[in-house]
Amino acid sequence: MRSMTGFGREAYQDEQLEINIEVKTINHRYFDVTFHMPKFLLPIEDQLKKIIQQEMKRGKISVSIYLTGTYTHQKQLRTDWDLVGQYMDQLKQLQENYHLTGDISIELISQFSDIFHIEEKEEINSDTEAKVKQTLELAVKKASQMRFNEGEELKKDLTKRAENIQNNIKQLGERRKIVIIEYQERILERINRYLESTPVSGDSTLYQEVALLAEKGDISEELTRIHSHVKQFQQIVGESDPIGRKLDFIVQEINRELNTIGSKSNDAWISEQIVYLKSEAEKMKEQIQNIE
């Protein structure tokens, strides 16, 4: 079991290059990666995403990549040839219009500083690309390890709560038999109170009605389904694949059955237990939202 909350940081440095990478992850319904990195890394973005997918299947993942070093800034002199042509045309026009003599020399042209400009070209070579990927792998593994560690704590908590629900369901099952008898007795007592002049001991039809009323308050089917859900929950918790969505669905089903029991039961003790169990199920649901 893995949490979707994690953080990992890794750095690389040599004489010409320094790489710093941070990976932050939080819970999310799907796999969602956001990169904050230099533009010249965009061509390898898909490759970087695959590195992350090897360790993480779900979560909102933010990756920050910082690169500094001489390799990233290569200065290159650029000439604006269109502007040079305009200068030449205008100078020749001056010569013709004003009958000027002399050559248009390179010394003259070079004085027009706006025709030259220096660009800093950012690029990445194969060696640097490999180092970025290696550094990212290490950062992702650290974040993944944190997710695993937190997942183990979540697993302990969820396992304990599932056992609590299971134990309480057993107690509800034992109490159910007593409740049915008490429910039947209360119904008969009320009938006898209001129909004192009519004997009910030999009226089979009346007893059938009493049995039907008691059946409406029977929670045995709901208890059986909850027991089955809890057993399935305990099995899935031990799986290595992403299980968050499966567990979320099972807890929803447990909650549905608990609500049904709460609406059917007229027993104060059972109602009290249902309140506790719904609280446990709600806490489980909150925890599951952060499971991959």
- Tell me the fraction of residues in β-strands, as a range: 15-25%
Please trace the helix and strand order, writing H or E for each element: EEEHEEHHEHHHHH
Strand order of the largest sheet: 1-2-4-3
Biggest sheet character: 4 strands, mixed
Q: If classified by CATH, what would the architecture of the domain at 6-71 and 124-146 be?
A: 2-Layer Sandwich
User: Helix- and strand-based class?
Assistant: alpha+beta
Task: Return Rg in Å.
Answer: 38 Å
Shape designation: elongated
Q: pLDDT below 50 for ≥5 consecutive residues: which ranges?
A: none
Number of helices: 8
Number of strands: 6
Q: And the CATH topology of the domain at 6-71 and 124-146? A: Ribosomal Protein S5, domain 2
The overall pLDDT average reads 86
Helix content: 55-70%
CATH domain class name of the domain at 6-71 and 124-146: Alpha Beta
User: How far apart are the termini?
Assistant: 7 Å
